C-alpha cells in the first residue's frame, strides 16, 4: 500500500513543481517584442505584389463589352494567390464589372442585385440539370445582357448558390 500511496503522492508533487517551472519559463516569452509583418507593396490596378504585377500584359484601355458582369466572390477567394477577379476587373470598365464579396446576399442588403436577379434577361453561370449551354442562348433583349458569376471552389460556389434564393431567378447557363 505504501508503494501505491507513494506513487500517487509523488507525481502530484512533481507535476506541481514542473508546472510552476514551466509557467515561469513561458512568462518571459510574452514579453518579447512582436515583429510587425509588412505586406509587400501592391499594384493599385491588378492588386498583385509589384514584383509580379501583370499590368504590362493587360489592355491599356478597358475592353468595350456590352455584357455587365456581377462577380459573386466567396470571402476566401479574396486572399488566394492567383486572384483572377482583380485582373478581370482591371480589363473591364468599372460599370461593367461589379464585385460583391460574401456568402449571403439578401434583397434587403443588396437591392441592386435583387433587381438584377429578377430581370428576365439575367443569366447565372452555374452548372446543373436546368442549365442551358451558353452557346445556345440568343440574347434578344434591348438592354445589355447581365451575367452573374460565382467565384469560389466548387463547394464554395455550391454553398453560395443554394443558400441564396435570389440566384434561382436568373436563367442558369453552363
TrEMBL record:
The keyword Coiled coil does not apply. The keyword S-adenosyl-L-methionine applies. Keywords: S-adenosyl-L-methionine, Transferase, tRNA processing. One of its GO terms (biological process) is tRNA processing. Residues 1-25 are annotated as: Disordered. Residues 15-24 have a biased composition (Acidic residues). It catalyses: a uridine in tRNA + S-adenosyl-L-methionine = a 3-[(3S)-3-amino-3-carboxypropyl]uridine in tRNA + S-methyl-5'-thioadenosine + H(+). InterPro entries: DTW, DTWD2/TAPT. Its EC number is 2.5.1.25. It comes from Odontophorus gujanensis (marbled wood quail). It holds the Pfam family DTW. Residues 1-14 have a biased composition (Low complexity). This is tRNA-uridine aminocarboxypropyltransferase. Belongs to the TDD superfamily. DTWD2 family. GO terms for molecular function: tRNA-uridine aminocarboxypropyltransferase activity. PANTHER family: TRNA-URIDINE AMINOCARBOXYPROPYLTRANSFERASE 2. Residues 39-174 form the DTW domain.
